[in-house]
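ingest -> validate -> predict -> emit
validate: passed (alphabet ok, no gaps, 117 aa)
predict: started
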Amino acid sequence: MDHLPNPDALNHARVIRMARVGMPEHAIAFSIGISINTLKAFYLDAIRQAENDLNLAVLETLASLAKSGHNPAATIFWAKTRCGFMPAKGFKSDFGDDMPEFVVRGPNGEREEDYRR
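emit:
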């Protein structure tokens, strides 16, 4: 199985397509009939670039959904993961409902003052 691949444009494009959708390296190697080591020797840069391109596209979509105002789950997810908002103990609002309290954390996990409405 460990013959040298034909690093032609067809194999290269196929490797990129498979990596772009998150296919694991062992599955890509099997698909084009080479070992994982050979795959890495010939295609590692292309695989890493394809993975980065996909991550960029997904993050751009998430950012768009988060700021659109039409997808509260995306907005909350963005606030928690990118802005450091973390749910903490609840508190009572003027309306008597339990409202979440948010703790603002810095990029290194340091805590800021509790934020209350």
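The radius of gyration is 22 Å.
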